[in-house]
Amino acid sequence: MISRNHRLLCLLAPLGALLLASMPAQAEIAVTFDMNSARLDYTLSSSNLTVRETAGSVFDVRKENTTALTILDTARIDGGSFFDLFLDLTMTDLPGANNWSAAGSLKFTDSTTTTFGVEAIFSSTGVYTLFGNNVLVIEGRLSPLSGSTILVNYGDPWTYVGQENIGLEGNQDGMNGQFSIDNPENYSQGDLVTLKFGLGGLSLDALFGANRMLAGGEVKGMIVPAPAAVVLGALGLGLVGWVRRKWAARAAA
Question: Has residue 2 been placed in a domain?
Fold first, then answer.
């Protein structure tokens, strides 16, 4: 029997190729980010799910040309005491078994200020589990929390400051551990995925049927200007391969 995961991969692969082929040729500059070692807390009485950094979290933020698939510049913050990330969601139990949605907000800082440089509304497009209910996936879209942009408070150009570059991935401005985005007022849309590995076979209804503290989560996202040449949802299209690689590495450990 063909598994649900295999069917999903078969459907996404050709669609992803089609979408990438249809992107316009002009350069599209995106802000992408990912954080590991996240903590997920769920409170049954309020249906509130929060995702926060921990002391062991590493936060990588990149400036990318998504048309040329090139990393232009990077900023890494090593250690959750040096930044704040707050994903604050309300989970809603929809009709049917294991059918949930999530809505709320995402905010995060750089390494130099407690003022949030990213503020966005989050609205889920999918809440599901993979690999025998062992991986929780919450994915959705980002839009401005207030005003017309997601990139806030850090000036024009919008400058994000980390502690160091990410290896040799890119250093467009020659400044170690920071980069700038021109015209931040145009950055009004994006995608976000948060993951939790090792659910131990819990279904969504079982997972959200009790208070939970879940360690070892991950957050991955992309913020783009509008109108965007990059097709929103491309992050989600690459999700399955990303999760499969990480799940295989954990299983082999």
Answer: no
